[in-house]
Amino acid sequence: MIKPDLPFLWKIYYANGSTFDSNDGSWKEKPGWGILAVVYFRPDSDDPKIGGRGWEIASGGDFYVRYADNTVISMDRDSLMDYIVNELGLIGVGRMVSWVEFQRVSRTANTEINQLKQGYSRRERQP
């Protein structure tokens, strides 16, 4: 269990040889491009199989995501999209369908929005 009163300690290693850590600024202030590895401290992580002593490393990913519990995960593009769509709920993903199916759904959506617009304009005219 992460203790909320403990600081989030981390260090990022970049492809150009530079580093940025929790003493240099906040996670949001870090340079976002060229990350090779993130070392971070989790007080609940004392399993010797994953490094022990609370320190963990995330590396080898295209993207690095910091979760609310101060876990850092390296992800590929598909995993990142899954996280954004399903866990954050920030975007929705479309899909290809046949032209006939697209037209059917478009007609239904247009009919429904026209009904909503007509009902709304009637309410506007009422005193």
Q: How many discrete structural domains?
A: 2
- Termini distance? 59 Å
The run of helices and strands is EEEEEEHH
β-sheet strand percentage: 15-25%
Major sheet strand order: 2-1-3-4
By DSSP (H or I, 4+ residues per run), the number of helices equals 2
Mean pLDDT: 84
> Stretches where pLDDT falls below 50 for ≥5 residues?
none
Estimate percent helicity: 25-40%
Which term fits the overall shape? elongated
Structural class, by secondary structure, is: alpha+beta
Tally the beta strands: 6
Largest sheet: 4 strands, antiparallel
What is the rounded Rg?
A: 24 Å
Description of the molecule:
The protein is α+β, with helices and mostly antiparallel strands. The protein folds into two domains: 79 residues, no CATH class; 33 residues. Helices cover 31% and strands 22% of the residues. It has two helices and six strands, in the order ββββββαα. The protein has a four-stranded antiparallel β-sheet with strand order 2-1-3-4, with no helix packed on it. A two-stranded antiparallel ribbon has the order 5-6. A hairpin with a 4-residue loop joins strand 1 and strand 2. The longest helix is centred in the C-terminal third of the chain and has 27 residues. The model has no long low-confidence stretch (mean pLDDT 84).
